[in-house]
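Hey, quick one: can you model this chain's 3D structure?
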Amino acid sequence: MTLLNIMDTDVVAFELTKNQRQWRNIKQNLNDAFEHWQRLSKDHLKEFLSLDPHNQMTLELTGRAIDKSFRLSLTPFLLDKSFFGRLRVFLPKAGTAEELIIAEYLLDNDGNISTQETGPKIDHETKNPNYTLLMNIIHEVLRH
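Sure thing. Here's the predicted structure for all 144 residues.
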């Protein structure tokens, strides 16, 4: 763990204010995506995807892909001085109340989505980025 050498409270306040603003944008982008996914699941994907109403306060979404349960959760995440929303995909661990993290996506303030391992995955040039992310999540759920 690296300790920060924070001597200037104005710098700290500026960074926290910037992170808070980015977090609001990231949350709004994901809430918009959740609403889009719920419409898709009802209108076009209902045979293999069901999504429960999402919780805007906890930033969580639960659902089932071909009868396989999963949960999504968004939390703030600072990585090498860059601020992200970390979207984790969880599956229930068989026979326990525990969950397994099967995938993580990093969402930035500009709507770009990446993973720590592979770097940028979906950006503003991606056609239908919300749909692309949803299909990646479903793929991860079904392959685990």
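One thing worth noting: Residues 9-143 form one domain.
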